[in-house]
Amino acid sequence: MSAAEAAPAAAPATANPLLAAWTGPYGGVPPWDRVKPELFPAALTAAIAERRAEIAAIAGSKQPASFANTVEALERAGQTLDRVNSLFDVMTSNMNSPAYQALDKEWAPKLSAANDEIILNSKLFARIEAVYNQRATLDPQQQRLVTRLYEQFVRSGAKLVPAQKAQLSAYNQQLAAAFSDFSSKLLADEDKAIFFTSEADLAGLPASGIAAAKAAAAERGQPGQWAIVNTRSAVDPFLTFATKRDLREKVWRAFVNRGDNGDANDTNATIAKIVKLRADRAKLLGFPSHAAWRMQDTMAKTPEAADALMMKVWPAAVARVKEEVADMQAIADKEGAKISIEPWDYRFYAEKVRKARYDLDQAEIKPYFELNNMIQAAFYSAGRLYGYQFREITGTVPVFEKNVRVWEVTKGGKYVGLFYGDYFARTGKRSGAWMTTYRGQQRFDGPRTTLASNNNNFAPAAPGEPVLISLDDAETLFHEFGHAIHYLSQDIYYPGLSGVPRDFVEFPSQVNEHWVLTRDVLDKFARHYQTKAPMPAALVDKIKQSEKFNQGFATVEYLASAIVDMDLHKRADGVVDVDSFERETLARIGMPKEMVMRHRLPQFGHLFSSDAYSAGYYSYLWSETMDADTWAAFEEAGNPWDEATAGRFLKTLLSTGNETDRAEAYRAFRGRDPDVKALLRQRGFPTE
């Protein structure tokens, strides 16, 4: 299908529902029932023009620059475009049909150029700088807002000369186009599946996994077959339970080679282009590397600080992998398998070790983790810790897909926001799990409440069957919900102080994972999907005893990705052969041969679908250092539900957005900087 066929002609702006202010209950809600791809070109064109006029009025004002007529005016500008962009971003992530892919390819560079118009507007920057130079007269919140605004403009090129500004905007537009290209290629590879004609090929999988594979095949027009879709939520269970080793290898190779098959969906050339453009942009902006540029507005501040943390953990993790492999090899030898452990064996034999060591089988756990129960468990935890209540209102407000559910969130009887849950994998939805805010909270110009969503890729069950998820899936559910709690808890005045540093953003979500395995949650919500009986105490005890199991694998697959990311983006010239760089970097750091990175470069969407996590994948570890130390505070209180600790966490860290420096806020919460030893203890690694 050509782009012209994929993207219908634009609707006239005057009749465009995407341009209207959001109406209805809850402070207005997105008009998902009226969103169509053909509406976006006219809506984006009109919204960009409206914002351009607003910016021109601010920059061209004859009045002396003041906080009110410059900084606050900027806080108000572009609200129509913000709404349209929110709709567009959700559709291109969650419902990415060929029509939306064509629109994304066309509009990503245009939107980048429109943003550069603001950053590179010399008259506007002169007014911001004038307010910044007089900031001593402002209150602390205003000082922080104008300082962050000024630094953002400088970091983004506001002080460049005109020719440099033109070059910078060209780089940004080329990057935006490359990000769209990478995303569409990766999505195409993840939409593929491996089909099996015999149920015997799925030997070892639990009944729920076999049913999900059958449903996936039927959805793809192959009834009577079984399909393992090329996404993590389908592949990981197959690699854990499937007894046919040759088929594990087949599924594993398809998964780890996404974007790396030398075909139309190969991403290597696109990645090389992105890395070079990033390096050239950093040089133009006066930085030695993309990593150095990206880390200016983080808690770590420098690539060296991030590297130092990663290398404190890496040796212990690699050592633990060697122990784990030895345990698995012993079982394989005892069974007479006559193999050496390979990457497609790791999850399978790790499960055997788990069963042998703890008498614990993941298939034994899964019947107790029914999706609806675990959603309610997340709500229960948020209620007990922070006082939130959730009332389902699905069907009363529009949604973008029929299976999306919606809850009204209140606290003490007062409305807080809405929570949307989009839980299931489908064609056109990007892989992984993520959180989105359709609208963020603020009190500037009157109260505005949060509209938050969680997006997962759980495998749908066959009709009439329950959706059973793994313990890992349950922790992912709580993780993403932790992001939602963070933004539902926010109580800030200026919207410009809502965004937190990249290496803080994962912190609240990682903290929230801890409550999955609290005894109270398991006793109340881990109920067998058939008998409704709670998980037996003996099984709960075995799960708790195995918490540190396989932490070598989990840490190394993540850290290898984070180290490769940082090394890639520290290159001053940005010239890279992607395949050899990945291979040589892993060899240099001693990557165990029995494993592969969690995200190989050809499919590393965190890095190459946008700038968001580039030179920033380390941030999960940085955040987890704070997370482990925060959980230690609850442990020191002797109660995972300790009201004083939860209240202090909410007040000091969750509700404050970026109104204060996040390192200072953490010190205010804990009385000191986070201790990496808590992270090492949490993973069962030596602390000395």
TrEMBL record:
Cofactor binding, per record: Binds 1 zinc ion.
Residue ranges annotated for the Peptidase M3A/M3B catalytic domain, each copy included: 240-684
Gene Ontology terms: biological process: proteolysis
Keywords: Hydrolase, Metal-binding, Metalloprotease, Protease, Zinc
InterPro entries: M3A_DCP, MetalloPept_cat_dom_sf, Neurolysin/TOP_dom2, Pept_M3A_M3B, Pept_M3A_M3B_dom
Needed cofactors: Zn(2+)
GO molecular function: carboxypeptidase activity; metal ion binding; metalloendopeptidase activity
Pfam family, one: Peptidase_M3
Cellular compartments per GO CC: cytosol
UniProt similarity note: Belongs to the peptidase M3 family.
Name of the protein: Peptidase M3
Organism: Sphingomonas oleivorans
